[in-house]
Amino acid sequence: MSSWICLGGDCAAGALEARELIGLAVALFHAIVFLQSGLDKVFDWKGNLEFMTGHFSNSPLAGPVAPLLAVVTVAEVGAGALSAAGAVGLLLGGQGVLAFWGALLAAVSLLMVLFGQRMAKAYADAAVIAPYFLVACLGIWILGS
Asked: Are 2 and 14 in contact (CB under 8 A)?
């Protein structure tokens, strides 16, 4: 295990340094969060659509719930898939480009969800999104530099 991780000094070839470990952790976090959320929407489309229709019934987004849910679903599955592939890339060769794009799409997905929660006046639910967004921003920063 010590040959996989480098905390400074003379590192083995291919060992992950602290910055790469943070990128890996962010990629795994996004893979878990967004694949679960997106695939739940795919496999329980009817239940999610029913919930969202009620949730947005008194908001300006009451009409286009189904297409907006589809967009969020595609973005979440994409963020999760890119993050998972990026985590594998980081483990196998230190390449974090897919994880970077996963983090960027995660941030976009979270902004869409935040916008919806604010429009529905679900302010407490919107506030919960902030820590997830910070993790996405950390991922963009770490993986993009």
From this structure: no
